[in-house]
Amino acid sequence: MKQRLQTSLGQQLVLTPQLRQALHLLQLSALDLEAEVSAAVESNPLLEWKEDAAPAAETASTPDSQATVEETPTTSHDDDWGSGESWQGSGGGGGFDDDRDPADRAADPDTLHEHLSWQLNLSQLSARDLLIGAAIIDAIEDDGYLRCSFDDIAAALAPETTCTHEEIQAVLCRIQHMDPIGVGARDLRECLLLQLAVLDEATPGHGLAMRMVEELLETLPRLGGDRLAEALDCPREAADEALQLLRSLNPHPGSGLGALPQETYVAPDCTISRHEGVWRVSLVDGPANRVTIHRGYEGMIGQTSEADGAYLRGRLQEARWLLRNLEQRGETLLKVVNCLVRQQSGFLEFGPQALRPLTLREVAAEIGMHESTVSRAVAGKYAHTPRGTLPLRDFFASGVSTDSGGQASSTAIQQMILRLVEAENPGKPLSDARLTEALKAEGVMVARRTVSKYREALNIPSSHDRVRLA
Length: 470
What we know:
Mean pLDDT: 77
Largest sheet: 4 strands, mixed
Number of helices: 19
Order of helices and strands: HHEEHHHHHHHHHEEEEHHHHHEEEEHHH
Structural class: alpha+beta
Helix content: 40-55%
Strand order of the largest sheet: 5-4-7-8
Distance between the termini: 90 Å
Low-confidence stretches: 54-109
Shape: extended
Number of strands: 10
């Protein structure tokens, strides 16, 4: 085949470095953006912080200079038995060979194993029993249960130390009476019995609570108050009293040790407020308003050598790109949030039950942008609103048709399901089929499998598992 040259005319999209940077900055959260700009200021001599601006991310503020960084503690899921705080130890001082400052030791919480080892070393046991106790403590899991067999513990000590099951049981009995009470139990029944055993027998409901654990523990969640009293052959008031005592125990004795409360800090990107009946959106003061071009280095471009001048010109172009992209990021974010506020004003006024169906495509069509741009704009972004600091993704929701011809958002339907479950009879909870019928009665046509999916998304157990004692 003969080779020849041929020209053709065509168009193709090329991502320039400036466009790549714009897309990258758009999808960054407020804290990530602060870190990105701080790194750029450190590496580019043509960028500098304004004299009255600080580069720290935690100084982000609203236009009225009030800090808007919201502290959101992680949620701990309470157990049906109660918090059990009365059984939690305050923590020991660690091992005897710890030569750190006492204040530092007090600030560091002991793990469950360190706390038990500290108590074991204080107990008057023989060297042999101390070795067995150390092996038992090493086998105890973080929730406080010993799920390892005695054979495995004996194998862990061999061949240096050989011991029998009776010796392991004797040392385990000592450990089970350490703080926290109930640690080292092999199952829930033993854990609760250990905690009841340390209470005074004159404690109201003590005897019946012991019987509940020994005889009715597996069926206890499904027994109503009257059936429970009948099974124990006692008055209803006495059964309720014993049940309250049982609920005050801690089924996870080791869960309260070894961890400090974790905190999550959220820096909002914008503020949504209402002035004289009108919703307004304003961007939080970010790095775009606190970084500028270094005028001293900019003035040196024409006064240096050719090589230095070329370097400074390149850095100046990068600095201008960054400032322009930061400005464009703010404009895009402002357009998207204003659209969300117009579409979801009911959500801001009345809560999730008023959230209307809204998709990325609808927002993109209204503001004249691509769906992917809107997706980047809302990813990892938060808005400070009268209802708290909310992620922008909470303003979007899929829709379900209603019998009136309109649509209800999935979030609103979830709130309806939650309201129905909270108002149900604890002894006869609503099944998914009955929830579907209740929603249809309110005009929301939804399938039973959809109700089941929404119920699971809300972490609501099935009706069989929601049976509660009256």
